[in-house]
Specification:
The protein contains no helices and eleven strands. The chain is an all-beta fold and 116 residues long. The chain has strands at residues 2-7, 10-13, 18-26, 33-39, 46-52, 58-60, 68-73, 78-83, 92-99, 104-106, 110-115. It is globular. Strand 5 and strand 6 (58-60) form a beta hairpin. Strands 2, 4, 5, 6, 9, 10 and 11 form a seven-stranded mixed beta sheet that branches. A four-stranded antiparallel beta sheet has the order 1-3-8-7, with no helix packed on it.
């Protein structure tokens, strides 16, 4: 089993920054991807960013490109999401995700609220 624990959410003014962290524990896999999704009230969960754990290849949603940066600490099995130039429309519950290639694992979510 895999456990994902997020932290770092909060309330910030528009234009501000936050850094989310997600620590993974439990079973390991030979190759996997970790990333972030978000879901605002009344909306579908949407992809934000991910990173291939072994090679470090990253991918971003168009809405966050140039503002968000995903990174990882392989030794600690932690993935980070640095969020700059935050906008009110970034307000969401942010979920950490681990895609093992045959199933997804999810954290409980951390709330990010951006005030205008």
């Amino acid at each position: 089993q895999v456990q994902l624990v997020e932290s770092g959410g909060g309330l910030v003014q528009a234009g501000g920054s936050l850094r989310l962290s997600c620590a993974a524990s439990g079973r390991t896999f030979s190759s996997y991807t970790m990333g972030w999704f978000r879901q605002a009230p009344g909306k579908e969960r949407e992809f934000v960013a991910n990173i291939a754990w072994s090679g470090g290849l990253t991918s971003y949603a168009d809405s966050v490109k140039g503002r968000f940066t995903i990174s990882r600490d392989k030794a600690k099995t932690v993935v980070y999401l640095r969020m700059d130039s935050l906008k009110p429309e970034d307000t969401s519950l942010y979920y950490c995700n681990l895609d093992s290639g045959w199933r997804d694992y999810w954290g409980q979510g951390t709330q990010v609220t951006v005030s205008s």
